[in-house]
Specification:
This protein has a 5-stranded mixed β-sheet, with no helix packed on it. A 5-stranded mixed β-sheet has the order 2-10-4-7-8, with no helix packed on it. By secondary structure, it is mostly beta strands. The relative contact order is 0.34. The chain has a single domain, classed as Jelly Rolls (Sandwich), CATH 2.60.120.380.
Length: 147
């Protein structure tokens, strides 16, 4: 018998979570929940994230993440990507928010890092649990002065 979509749990409002720098481990996120982490990008700064899915009993692609200007808002676009990224269990996904005014040649991150050039200000790192089960993740947060 097919499941009626109206019987599935409704998504809940996003909640704001404070980042305990620099390494954030052991986060849990409820079914269909969205967690939003506020980030401040200063002038001539880069904020680097290494995020990984850590729930052993759930498969890859059950957590989606993206950056936005407002909690749970549309995705900030970056080169060759226009949508959220799914977290994996065997490889950390790497992202960086970088001051758009920085044009220095040195201090470039690895080529695997997805760089989003932004105006200095506040942004949100959003993570959505796409399942009806408790899910887990962790990330590393690195703030770099580019001057």
């Amino acid at each position: 018998m097919p499941i009626d979509p109206t019987d599935l749990p409704k998504p809940t409002a996003p909640y704001i979570v404070t980042i305990n720098q620099p390494y954030c481990s052991g986060y849990q996120i409820g079914p269909n929940q969205i967690a939003c982490f506020p980030i401040i990008v200063g002038s001539s700064q880069r904020v680097l994230f290494n995020a990984i899915h850590t729930s052993r009993h759930l498969q890859d692609y059950t957590l989606a993440c993206w950056f936005s200007t407002v909690p749970n808002n549309p995705v900030l676009f970056y080169k060759n990507r226009t949508y959220s990224i799914h977290l994996l269990k065997n490889k950390a996904q790497q992202f960086a928010l970088q001051d758009i005014n920085y044009n220095g040649c040195e201090k470039h991150p690895q080529p695997s890092v997805r760089i989003i050039n932004v105006e200095p200000g506040m942004y949100y790192f959003n993570i959505a649990n796409l399942t009806g089960h408790l899910n887990k993740f962790e990330f590393q947060y690195i703030l770099t002065d580019l001057q």
